[in-house]
Amino acid sequence: MQPLSGLRILEFDGLGPVTFAGMMLADLGAEVLRLSRATSAGAGAGVFDEVGGAVLHRGRASVPVDLKAPADRERILALVEKADAAIEGFRPGVMERLGYGPEILHQRNPALVFGRVTGWGQTGPLAQTVGHDLNYIGLSGLLHAMGPADRPPAPPLNVVGDYGGGAMMLVVGVLAGLIEARTTGRGRVVDAAMTDGAALLGGLFQALHGRGLWNDRRGANLLDGGAPFYRCYRCQDGGFVAVAALEPRFYAALLKGLEIAPETAPQYDFAGWPALHARLEQIFARRDRDDWTAAFADTEACVTPVLSLAEAPDHPHNRARATFHGGLPTPAPRFDGAPARTVAPPSAVTLSDAVQAWSNTG
To answer: Model-level pTM greater than 0.70?
Structure first.
């Protein structure tokens, strides 16, 4: 039994955050049906869908549907009656035009939690504007803070917008709505916008900036690479180490391991940071990455290797925790000290079989 066992979720298939949210809910034990576009409806799988499907579509069945076909519509609404929540990631108004907006679905199931995730949100001047997660986090203020000082802001993959600001906020909103619906019998409509979510993730930095404690110039602050004791360094072999010696005692351990006299490198001498950064660059460039890793093992210096995607599954810590299986990440978080578990690969069922299965089980 997983925490969400017994919950039924309809996922109106899409790209990006709604797919990740469906994966998370399935990983946590919910029975998720992914309503994917049938070939007859003009479906076409892109490279991300094809390659990422092994992880993003895991743990749930794909049900090919034509959302515009009357026969499929009646079967989908029958599933809605048995569902606890539905999630979708279309542009605002699309679900309404297709006949699956929250008002329609709530007529069939008033307790249904209707989760919506978009880039700009359901309302606002940009709500109908196209974009991708890089556009959305650009509006949040976070993108401006990422990357080196002398280069344009660096795209942080799509983990900040699509997954952090979008999918995870959608999952939290849906779970909150499900808790409320159990006592009120009323399902909420969750409006998860990546612009809102990314802004929330960056709340600490907005607060620091408002107090004059965070500079809008990249690479000039404590956590953006400006501090020489909180950044990555290139090693002799071209590999990198991550240095995160924030606390004074951790910083002292770092200096000891680098054979630097503490009096020559005060931690918070801001004017001296550029020179100290250059000094540490020269020192770390003298040895290979794994040599530095071994040298700082069992110390408090907070120096660890920067692993590549290929290396990460084979790291001893990740192997011991079974963080990866078959090269792909296993579900997180874990509960009650249970070991990592694998999840069934994507499967497929017909819409008629899905309706019959849900009808036979309550």
So the answer is: yes
